[in-house]
Every structure is written in C-alpha cells, then in structure tokens.
C-alpha cells in the first residue's frame, strides 16, 4: 500500500486530538467565572472566549471615552452565557 502505515496515521491523529484538547483546556483557564472543574464543550469554550473578548473590547472603548470607568468595574454586563455545570 501507499502512504504511511495505519498505525502511524492513528498515532498522528491521537497526537493531534491531544494537542487540540490541551489548547482548549488552556483557553478555558483564561475565562473568568468558569470554575476550574467545569466540563465545557469546545463550542462552549469558543462562545465564552469570543463573548469575553468582545466584552474586553467594549470595556477598552468605554475607557477611551470616559477614563476611570470601564475595566475597573467589570460590571458582569452579560458577556458570559449560562454555563452548564
């Protein structure tokens, strides 16, 4: 047969999945108000990350318009969707 043996493909795929899983866990760790042992799907992690980034972006824009407010008051203004625990 052509190409790498199936065992090599399987090993490479396992390694890829492991790397991806680790990256998602690292990303989840950076999210505020997600308890450490929370089980989240990859989709949930991406949704939380993008909404959190949008929240931070808004906070920085608010800070430019009216210094002294903004990031200092992380107002919990709905940047996280409900987390399934």
UniProtKB/TrEMBL annotation:
<dbReference type="Pfam" id="PF00010">
    <property type="entry name" value="HLH"/>
</dbReference>
<dbReference type="GO" id="GO:0000977">
    <property type="term" value="F:RNA polymerase II transcription regulatory region sequence-specific DNA binding"/>
</dbReference>
<dbReference type="InterPro" id="IPR036638">
    <property type="entry name" value="HLH_DNA-bd_sf"/>
</dbReference>
<dbReference type="InterPro" id="IPR050283">
    <property type="entry name" value="E-box_TF_Regulators"/>
</dbReference>
<feature type="region of interest" description="Disordered">
    <location>
        <begin position="59"/>
        <end position="85"/>
    </location>
</feature>
<protein>
    <submittedName>
        <fullName>Transcription factor 24</fullName>
    </submittedName>
</protein>
<dbReference type="GO" id="GO:0032502">
    <property type="term" value="P:developmental process"/>
</dbReference>
<dbReference type="GO" id="GO:0000981">
    <property type="term" value="F:DNA-binding transcription factor activity, RNA polymerase II-specific"/>
</dbReference>
<dbReference type="InterPro" id="IPR011598">
    <property type="entry name" value="bHLH_dom"/>
</dbReference>
<dbReference type="GO" id="GO:0046983">
    <property type="term" value="F:protein dimerization activity"/>
</dbReference>
<feature type="domain" description="BHLH">
    <location>
        <begin position="4"/>
        <end position="56"/>
    </location>
</feature>
